[in-house]
């Protein structure tokens, strides 16, 4: 009797698990289909509305007044300048902090606090970071919007992404490599630079590219810092145009010419993010093949 009862309980448990597994598979497939449909819908709308605005003038002329032709040359330039400045500001700090966490702060209370703070910064809304930089930089300079302030705001987004990637990539390097180098008498700093970073470099580069892809579409921080500029400007201490801000302003305008420019800018920006993500994945794939 006991054996029969145990067998019945096992059969019931097995049927319940099969039903749960089938239900989970159905729900996951439905979610996948919904996601693909939404992605296809967005991509088709973006291509249909933005492809017609891709022309030479888009890259050779500045943002125009209402009801006139023009392009996004100054916005492309401003976005490139502020994104590159943000990478230049945030990447060294993030790599240094990630290296300290992986090599010196591992298992310490300070390291745990730093990781916790970095996780908070990683999930913080970008508009909050923009308001912080607005208070810290813009208001302290007499309300002067500038490209430098915009780059600082974007750097706050770069730092947690690159820091987390650097930390994880260095911790994934086998400990035997570190021990072998130390056993040969190499100083710890040389082990980190010449051994650990050589193995972790593709992952770190991937993190930098992903951070670049993320900040290239940020609008909220730039509204409070760089603000925008209808004209060409290379002055880092003054307002500067950017593609996300122009898209935000032009897409909500009643002028068809401005809306067309917004869609064209969105298509170019999306293509850039896609290509950057593909390059990052290619680096990771090549690194895996080389190690396999």
Automatic annotation (TrEMBL):
Entry-linked Gene3D superfamilies: MetI-like (1.10.3720.10)
PROSITE patterns from the UniProt entry: ABC_TM1
Family note: Belongs to the binding-protein-dependent transport system permease family. CysTW subfamily.
Compartments where found: Cell inner membrane; Cell membrane
Pfam families for this protein: BPD_transp_1
Protein's UniProt keywords contain Cell inner membrane: no
NCBIfam families membership: 3a0107s02c (TIGR00974)
Gene Ontology, cellular component aspect: plasma membrane
Tagged with keyword Nucleotidyltransferase: no
Bilayer disposition of the protein: Multi-pass membrane protein
Record domain ABC transmembrane type-1: where: 72-280
PANTHER family, alphabetized: PHOSPHATE TRANSPORT SYSTEM PERMEASE PROTEIN PSTA (PTHR42922:SF1)
Transmembrane segments: 21-42, 75-101, 113-137, 143-163, 195-215, 261-284
Gene: pstA
Protein name: Phosphate transport system permease protein PstA
Example of a GO MF term: phosphate transmembrane transporter activity
InterPro entries: MetI-like, MetI-like_sf, Phosphate_PstA, Phosphate_transprt_permease
Keywords: Cell membrane, Membrane, Phosphate transport, Transmembrane, Transmembrane helix, Transport
One Gene Ontology biological process: phosphate ion transmembrane transport
């Amino acid at each position: 009797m006991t054996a029969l009862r145990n067998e019945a309980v096992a059969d019931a448990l097995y049927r319940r698990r099969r039903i749960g597994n089938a239900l989970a598979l159905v729900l996951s497939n439905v979610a996948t289909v919904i996601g693909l449909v939404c992605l296809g819908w967005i991509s088709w709308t973006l291509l249909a509305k933005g492809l017609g605005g891709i022309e030479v003038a888009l890259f050779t002329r500045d943002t125009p007044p209402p009801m006139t032709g023009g392009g996004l040359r100054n916005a492309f330039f401003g976005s490139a300048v502020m994104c590159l400045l943000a990478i230049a500001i945030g990447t060294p700090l993030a790599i240094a902090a990630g290296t300290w966490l992986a090599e010196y702060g591992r298992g310490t209370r300070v390291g745990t606090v730093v990781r916790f703070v970095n996780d908070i910064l990683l999930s913080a809304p970008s508009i909050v970071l923009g308001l912080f930089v607005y208070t810290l930089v813009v208001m302290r300079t007499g309300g002067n919007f500038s490209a430098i302030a915009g780059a600082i705001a974007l750097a706050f987004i770069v730092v947690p992404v690159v820091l987390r990637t650097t930390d994880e990539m260095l911790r994934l390097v086998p400990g035997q490599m570190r021990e072998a180098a130390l056993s040969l008498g190499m100083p710890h700093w040389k082990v980190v630079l010449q051994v650990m970073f050589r193995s972790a470099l593709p992952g770190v580069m991937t993190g930098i590219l992903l951070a670049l892809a993320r900040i290239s579409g940020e609008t909220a921080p730039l509204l409070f810092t760089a603000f925008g500029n209808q004209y060409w400007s290379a002055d880092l201490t003054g307002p500067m145009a950017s593609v996300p801000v122009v898209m935000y302003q032009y897409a909500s305008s009643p002028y068809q010419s401005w809306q067309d420019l917004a869609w064209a800018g969105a298509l170019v920006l999306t293509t850039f993010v896609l290509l950057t993500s593909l390059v990052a994945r290619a680096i990771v794939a090549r690194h895996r093949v080389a190690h396999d």
